[in-house]
């Protein structure tokens, strides 16, 4: 369980509270296409504003390669936030984020007011390299700091970690918000204190992204299910013919080690027993394709596995339905293509039908669950892809570590 100071344990009324949110939402032509992350921040913002805090919000958006640009401005976020809150949100359109213009707006704030700063990544390396100058400038705007950006908690950036040092120096509090608290408690309990049987499901394309996750979860779960593109390297490690399917030759020995580890620990490691194949990768990704199903050890040399097959769906679904805790990260196939989404959909369906605690570990799995219409059937959907993965690896997240610890009970 979380042993960090939360927003419920800090002074709010009349105080300037800087809140690091995760407003890294997808934009298309300046329009927000998915506002999930904005909605996830609302409980924290409402609490701080409602209790008379002067709420200063900051976030990054996009990758921001070449300095400030209108396409990655948080202006659209301010508009959507105002609609969702039903309350005025003042946007400080200052590409430098901090400075006299920003300070003047903050100084004019009344209790309950909400201000949104410009994209923190517009400051470039000052933000991403945790620059002391920018960290202090952010801290100078506030009395206390609340980190509610789980999706950025694995990054030691100025607006996530650096600012906390200067808030502490002035005697302010560094707390976590409601979203961070919920994320850490759900993911933490699911992995460290699960109701059993505990089934972990890993998919997606790259084994390299999930090396430590596989190893860590094998020690915690009862059954580990592996699907998606990464499964074919495991099948190759078993000596199977996988055709043109995705293969990471440098990880074949690692896959053997993991299969041996599962056996040694008495854990069940489930791999696909059949696959939906195509001649080539669909281009565009949702293009119509001719599919054929083959047993997992009989994929022809000129075909590639693109999704788990019907027998695998039954195998995986049975394991999920018997579980009491399920954690899922990574799709079972190329779910963006309707013809290759059956495996991912079946896993989501099996999770939706179980009475287990079901946790979706962000990224593509969250996108798939939302897209396929199962979001409201899950216990928790994480807002952080990379952060969830690092959490599942057993790593400490810098954004969590930087928050004040709860004082020990006397």
- Structural class per helix/strand content? alpha/beta
Tally of contiguous helical segments? 15
Helix content: 25-40%
Q: Write down the oligomeric state.
A: single chain
Query: What name goes with the CATH superfamily of the largest domain?
Result: Phosphoglycerate kinase, N-terminal domain
Q: Largest sheet at a glance?
A: 6 strands, parallel
What is the general shape? elongated
User: Which CATH class of the largest domain is shown?
Assistant: Alpha Beta
Strand content: 15-25%
Number of domains: 2
Can you count the beta strands?
17
Tell me the distance between the termini: 19 Å
Report a brief summary of the structure.
The protein has helices at 36-50, 75-85, 100-107, 125-128, 132-140, 158-169, 178-192, 211-220, 231-237, 252-265, 310-321, 342-353, 363-372, 385-393, 398-401, and strands spanning 16-20, 27-28, 31-32, 54-58, 90-92, 114-117, 144-147, 174-176, 198-202, 223-226, 268-270, 274-278, 292-295, 304-308, 325-329, 357-360, 380-381.
Description:
This protein is of the alpha/beta class and 410 residues long. Helices cover 37% and strands 16% of the residues. The chain is built from 15 helices and 17 strands. The strands form four sheets. The protein has a six-stranded parallel beta sheet with strand order 5-6-4-1-7-8, with helices on both faces.
């Amino acid at each position: 369980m979380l042993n960090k100071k939360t927003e419920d344990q800090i002074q709010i009324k009349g105080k300037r509270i800087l809140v690091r949110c995760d407003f890294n939402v997808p934009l298309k032509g300046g329009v927000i296409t998915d506002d999930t992350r904005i909605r996830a921040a609302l409980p924290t913002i409402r609490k701080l504003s409602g209790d008379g805090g002067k709420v200063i919000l900051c976030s990054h958006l996009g990758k921001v390669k070449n300095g400030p640009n209108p396409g990655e401005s948080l202006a659209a976020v301010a508009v959507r936030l105002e609609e969702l809150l039903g309350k005025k949100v003042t946007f400080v359109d200052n590409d430098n984020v901090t400075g006299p213009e920003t300070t003047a707006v903050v100084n004019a704030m009344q209790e309950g007011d909400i201000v949104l700063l410009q994209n923190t990544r517009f400051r470039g390396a000052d933000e991403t390299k945790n620059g002391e100058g920018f960290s202090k400038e952010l801290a100078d705007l506030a009395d206390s700091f609340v980190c509610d950006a789980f999706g950025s908690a694995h990054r030691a950036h100025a607006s996530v970690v650096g600012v906390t040092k200067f808030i502490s120096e002035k005697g302010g509090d560094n707390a976590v918000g409601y979203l961070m608290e919920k994320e850490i408690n759900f993911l933490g309990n699911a992995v460290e204190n699960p109701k059993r049987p505990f089934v972990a499901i890993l998919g997606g394309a790259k084994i390299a992204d999930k090396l430590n996750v596989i190893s860590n979860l094998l020690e915690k779960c009862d059954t580990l299910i592996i699907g998606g593109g990464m499964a074919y390297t495991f099948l190759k490690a078993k000596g199977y013919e996988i055709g043109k399917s995705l293969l990471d030759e440098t990880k074949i020995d690692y896959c053997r080690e993991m299969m041996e580890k599962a056996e040694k620990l008495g854990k069940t490691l489930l791999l696909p027993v059949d696959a939906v194949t195509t001649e080539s990768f669909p281009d565009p990704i949702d293009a119509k394709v001719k599919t054929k199903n083959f047993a997992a050890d009989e994929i022809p040399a000129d075909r590639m596995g693109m999704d788990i097959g019907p027998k695998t769906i039954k195998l995986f679904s049975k394991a999920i339905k018997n579980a009491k805790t399920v954690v899922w990260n990574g799709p079972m196939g190329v779910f963006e293509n309707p013809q290759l989404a059956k495996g991912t959909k079946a896993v989501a369906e099996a999770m939706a039908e179980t009475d287990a605690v079901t946790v979706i570990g962000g990224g593509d799995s969250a996108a798939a669950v939302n897209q396929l219409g199962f979001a409201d059937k899950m216990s928790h959907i994480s807002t952080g892809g990379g952060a969830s993965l690092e959490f599942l690896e057993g790593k400490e997240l810098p954004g969590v570590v930087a928050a004040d610890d709860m004082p020990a009970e006397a």
